[in-house]
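User: hey, got a sec? need ABC transporter permease folded
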Amino acid sequence: MRNFKTTALLLTVPASLMAIGLYAAPILQVLALSLTEPKFGLANYQGLFANAAVGRVVMTTVKVSVMTTVLTVLASYIVAFAIIHMSAGWRRISLFLVLVPFWISVLVRAFSWITILRRRGVLNSTLMDMGVISTPLDLVYNLFGVTVGMVHYMMPFAILLLYANLSDIDRRIMQAARSLGARPATIFWRVWLPLSLPGIALATLFVFVFSLGFLVTPALLGAGKTLMIAEYISVQISSTSRWDLATSLSTMLLLVVGVIVFAAMRSPALRAAFVARPQQ
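Assistant: Yep! Here you go:
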């Protein structure tokens, strides 16, 4: 048994070295640049708190991330809950449809939303032809468009996380509650929902952290009008060559994400998501 564990540990060495080379080394380089560009010190970090533009970008990022997280987890919970209660055949089909977006480029999905939401796009044209609206609605290149695109991108991840959690819930508990005279609404709110809190917590953490560093979808659907941290950092590097600002903001983002994950992992609900339940 000890030899097996040693062998398994040795097999992880190549992947660990690759992770260090591809992730740890660049992160350390970014940290070094943030402290030495243009001169050594913490002036870059002090400047972040005095920069009004950075403050606006941070507020936009938090707002979009929170909205994306709430809408994604809510919609994904409904879908995962429905899939759990389908027959085996329909469940396989539904899970296949959930996986389909993973095979489509994020660029294709973003441009598809632009086609649908633009002023002369599919949605506005349909609503105008039906007489619902007289002038096109501004549905893209703003906060609404960015949020729609991000929710669409995040939902497959959240659905799979929630589906895994909901699949582990022992149905006999529901049957026991039903046999005791509990109504369906009471069973859901008092039994099912509390048991699914670990999955909700995990999906919430994943979507929120992912949203904080999202680049492609906000850049395309926001068109610079809804500027988030990742796009702002990209602009500072590629357009203005402000490496001092870009690296210090990147480091702060990494630090904030680390603190959020560390604090979240201390939550009993989230820790329970990683505890295997006994087989039904």
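Quick note: The chain has a mean pLDDT of 86. Let me know if you need anything else on ABC transporter permease.
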